[in-house]
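User: What would this chain look like folded?
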Amino acid sequence: MRILSVGTSGKNCTVAILEDEIIKKEINNQEGQTHSQTLMPQIKEIMEAENLNFDMIDAYAVSVGPGSFTGIRIGVSTIKGFCISHPKKVFDVPSLLALAYNVKDFRGTIVSCIDAKNDNVYSAIYDNTSGIPQLLGDYISDNVEVLIDKIKGIKGSVIIVGDGVNLLKERIHLDNVEYASEDKNIEYASSIAFAAIDMDKENKATTGTLLSPLYLKKSQAERELESKIN
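Assistant: Here's the prediction, encoded as structure tokens.
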């Protein structure tokens, strides 16, 4: 299976081509330009570099959030657009799951954590004893102290991954907890694609029509609008 994978939910605008579970090419851009400026040129570059057209792509994978509201919309709308002219099966990969795949070789509990600002986090806890991260409980969108309490209750080896690491390093000092290296704490299209491969094994594909963002809270604009209405 040849997958075109994109990630735009964080600071890294990332695109990859995977073929039969091998990364053929990946392009990452953290230069500060908006994802709306960089995503399509990156896709064009990677397709040309691999001498591919959309008829040669078997599936799309995209991170659907949580993360940057604007970034998520850019990635999701781009894949939805591709599905209009070149329909394929689609894998809607939560960004927290993609982060877990950055440290997939770790055996134990993976805590994916994204800084949601103002001491809040988006987080998910995964059991990775089998090598395929399995979500434990619900997604977390709350104050960081709520997550800290949950981490303190985990038995066995724990690794924390994502840009939320910086919120936790000074607050958690436990022998069973380690932190992913800095290069693992951003979203990669290759990890999104590897998550999609495992999702495919469980028949968890969706379609461009059904593809939608995963928001764990309303955007600031929506909250401000509601406050004016109320």
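Residues 69-85 form the longest helix (17 residues). If you want, I can go into more detail on any region.
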